[in-house]
Amino acid sequence: MEPTRNCPLFGGAFFAILPTGAIDVRDLRPVPDNQEVFCHPVTDQSLIIELLELQAHGQGGAAARYHFEDIGGVQGARAVHVLSVQPLWLENLSLRGCCQDAWFLSGKQQVAKDNEQVLAIFVS
Q1: What does the CA dihedral 60, 37, 80, 100 come to, rounded to 10 degrees?
Q2: Is this prediction's pTM over 0.70?
Q3: Please, what is the end-to-end C-alpha distance for the chain in angstroms?
Q4: pLDDT tens-digit series, residues 78-98
Q5: CA 25, CA 6: separation in Å to the nearest integer?
Q6: Residue extents of the structural domains in the chain
């Protein structure tokens, strides 16, 4: 297992445990203030943590799904697939006094990087 480090997010408001090799994308290019973006130099995977605005038309897990699908649409994702949506226990969160509920969505999006084209390969 790769060694990890405790990494501050959004000026230290949150922390995440990341592999020591994770690169802060801010060191490479501009990143919006509402995002923290990290990439892995070997696997070419990215982790994007984004602060989102409350949407009155959706609540709970439906709001998490809405935001995930909306981000995929904005980025021109060719595929957006939600794997699971699960509630987080508020007593385990540092923001427990500030929010009514919290959700963890796991999913995949197929998005081209920069000017690359997204290629889909089908094997039959």
Answers
A1: 0
A2: no
A3: 35
A4: 889 999 999 888 887 766 677
A5: 17
A6: 1-51, 61-124
